[in-house]
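Many introductory courses stop at the sequence. We go one step further.
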Amino acid sequence: MENLIVTLIIVVIVAAAAGKIIVEKRKGAKCIGCPHGQACSSTDCSSSDFS
């Protein structure tokens, strides 16, 4: 029973992460983890452009 609960928790975490990636990509974010993801003009997502 504990294995089922742990497995369900892991599945929920992975599904939430995948959902976040899908939503952000639909919004047009180039770099999902970058705070400047939607305004970033470079492809390497370096935050040095915004300092």
